[in-house]
UniProtKB/TrEMBL annotation:
Record has Signal as a keyword: yes
Localization: Membrane
Protein's recorded name: non-specific serine/threonine protein kinase
Molecular function (Gene Ontology), one example: protein serine/threonine kinase activity
């Protein structure tokens, strides 16, 4: 089996990456404003970036900003006002205006209110002026906007009030006057949201764009096609996002799947066989295990190994609970016990607490042994069948009744799976579940896969007889 779920996905040529030279990658939903670019743009209309030397720049409604960094994983962009770059005592020239752009402040941002060329202090409390911005007899002041409990009476006292945004981590309460210059040079962070009209395109795995001349939206798909609103051909995949019922269990979802769902909706090896009014069944190493319950938020399944430790049928048909060459492994708090059936008369050497009495119709001379059983290390009776069974190591197994209870409660196994992949109808391939579109190449950077956790998942398994 090969997994192709990574971030090195092939993307349409119009959505290719560009670097002005400082290492900041210009990728979707941003796009490079090349003078030779065509009318069709792959990205949000307002997110065009140009290069000034080796620095990418973004034009907002009232000014131009250097792009210091872009984090596509959490959808944030860090900007520095070109007007203040390199100045030790910068003077804010304008307010930050976002208007209707799909941009917003983050909780890391801090607004500073500047009052310039004041004939007297605008504050009702004692405040120090900014010495480096003194002009003749007039002074300038700065305060943290969020700390202003009352309106500042600056009209008639100061020529201008402007608000500059900086990173909260760059300013301390007592160091504002000495720190604001360095903070303004390090910039501020904005996050972005999906542009109205682009949701259906992105949900189908496409890249939203537009035609500048026709002023109409486009959806660029990774198969090379271009559509007006969304990528086609993946209608079945929308069913993957819906929870499903399987026998007595409800609200199941990826990585589990059953015959009612497309193979791309689940992970190979985690298919369930549903039975009306009964527990689902999962097959491991050609053995069928009954699933009693699933807690997907906690990644836990509960199942039982046997319903009877004294089968009436052929005891040699007891299941093999080995997990070799499977995606499963036992969790550390479990250990194996061994059940022995149809043993020689030497079983008299086994303490009564470890014997299994199955009656006339069951296997004869049966017993079980834990790793620390007192007779371990001795020559055990010859038995024609032995079966290993995992049990919680915390359980003290004594007597047939307790043994049966522990085995019926089941055992935990963990397994790893590609947390955003499904099974391709081809037997050896996977599809990556990107938003609402499967893709064999992988999910594009900056998009959210439908499955976020990458933890091991814990199962409790049971085998029924």
């Amino acid at each position: 089996m090969n997994s192709y779920c990574d971030d090195s996905a092939l993307i349409p040529s119009k959505c290719s990456t560009h670097d002005c030279g400082n290492g900041v990658a210009i990728e979707y939903p941003f796009w490079y404003m090349d003078v030779n670019s065509s009318d069709e743009v792959c990205g949000y209309p307002e997110f065009g970036l140009s290069c000034s030397g080796d620095e990418p720049i973004l034009k907002l409604p009232n000014n131009t900003y250097y792009v210091n960094s872009i984090n596509y994983a959490n959808s944030t962009i860090t900007l520095v006002d070109i007007d203040v770059t390199g100045q030790t005592c910068p003077r804010a020239r304008h307010n930050l205006t976002l208007e209707n752009l799909p941009l917003g402040y983050t909780n890391l941002d801090l607004n500073l209110s500047f009052y310039f060329n004041c004939s007297s202090s605008p504050f009702s409390f004692s405040a120090s002026a900014i010495g480096c911005l003194e002009f003749s007899t007039n002074q300038s002041y700065v305060s943290m906007t969020e700390n202003q409990t009352n309106d500042v009476d600056w009209i008639g006292k100061c020529e201008e009030k402007l608000v500059a945004t900086v990173m909260r981590t760059e300013i301390t309460t007592n160091g504002l006057i000495s720190e604001f210059g360095g903070a303004m040079n390090k910039g501020f962070m904005l996050d972005w949201r999906t542009v109205k009209g682009c949701g259906s395109c992105e949900d189908s795995g496409g890249f939203c764009g537009y035609n500048k001349t026709a002023e109409e939206s486009k959806c660029f798909c990774r198969d090379g096609t271009v559509h007006s609103s969304q990528c086609k051909g993946d209608q079945d995949f929308t069913e993957c996002l819906k929870p499903f019922h399987c026998g007595l269990l409800s609200n199941l979802s990826y990585p589990f799947w059953d015959d009612s769902r497309s193979e791309i909706c689940g992970f190979q090896g985690l298919k369930l066989r549903c039975q009306e009014g009964k527990r689902p069944v999962i097959s491991i190493n050609n053995e069928e295990f009954y699933v009693q319950s699933v807690d997907q938020p906690q990644h836990v399944m509960t199942i039982a190994l046997w319903e009877n430790v004294c089968p009436l049928d052929n005891v040699s048909q007891f299941p093999d609970t080995s997990l070799n060459e499977t995606p499963f492994s036992y969790v550390p708090e479990f250990e194996n016990i061994t059940l022995f059936y149809n043993c020689t008369n030497q079983i008299t050497m086994i303490p009564d607490a470890y014997r299994i009495s199955c009656g006339e119709n069951g296997p004869r001379n049966a017993f079980y042994a834990t790793d620390d059983a007192p007779f371990r290390g001795q020559d055990l009776p010859d038995c024609n069948t032995s079966v290993k069974a995992p049990v919680p190591s915390r359980e003290l197994i004594r007597g047939l009744e307790n043994l049966t209870r522990v085995l019926m409660e089941g055992f935990n196994v963990t397994y790893k799976f590609n947390h955003s992949c499904g099974t391709d109808p081809s037997p050896t391939l996977f599809e990556c579940l990107c938003r609402e579109k499967p893709d064999r190449a992988g999910c594009p950077k900056g998009t959210t896969n439908i499955i976020l956790p990458s933890k091991n998942v814990v199962f409790f398994l049971v085998m029924g007889y």
